[in-house]
Amino acid sequence: MAFIKLGYYISIPGTVTYKKASQVKNVAANIPLERVLIETDAPFLAPGTRGEENGTSLFLWALLQKRSQDSEISNLKKWPGSPRKMPGYYLVCRKQMNFHYISKQSPLILASASPRRERLLAQTGLPFRPMASDVEEEGVSGEPEEVAQILAEQKASQVALRASNSWILGADTMVVVDGEILGKPKHREDAKRMLWRLNGREHRVVTGFCVLNPLAAVAHKEAVTTLVKVKTLTGREIDAYVKTNEPFGKAGGYAIQGIGSFMVSHISGSYTNVVGLPICSMIEALLLLRALEGFPIPHKSHRTEEDSSGL
Asked: Quick count: other Cβ atoms within 10 Å of Cβ 253?
């Protein structure tokens, strides 16, 4: 059951049981009253029904009434229902949660030590501060889009422990061919193996990114995919490219923004996504979340001068 979305949304799916009611109460207790939306998409069981749900509707209704008084909530509705069930009461606050905008004084926290992501963000003019995370990128199973989002969230959440009251961005990029996720090559032979796998073929580059709001709650998660076609490479080209050392530290063993651009015949989708961060989708998400007052930012801001080691 997801309780918090965008920092102020509490959803109660299905029948409202005592356990769910208690969880809602615990979650709501940690959020300013005027900044919460409580909504149900299914009936409350009416008083007198049997089972653990008995009386839950009264408990929730009392909670909602209290919040209505404390929060000066203007819209309190009850949908028509059957005699034995009271459909979900819900509260709509007059004000949604308003966080500060990303600015030079309150920069976006980039949960990454990737110089490529730093360069991409710097080019946008967004004020940001890098803080490295040390999340283990192996051991997470699932579809590539799902794995990328999980890792992005883990990176952002880990950094959130050190960066309070900030918008935080985590990201993870992976190369996928024939369902196999290609990580960063561990040695020269591993790099060659990856390049031979990509040789003359089309593959997917998937970047998952996650935005945490200043309460460290997940505000947005998304995975963006770009199709990349690699030309037919010779063994000599692969050996020579590996000797440049550029493949190391790069998902899939190549860098489209560097020497590795020679092997990319064409792409379909976001170029910056292949580099490590889908800038267009990221900016749209930040605007939607009201993390940005507008974009582009009138005066260009630069990377906040601070050690990117995250210490």
From this structure: 27
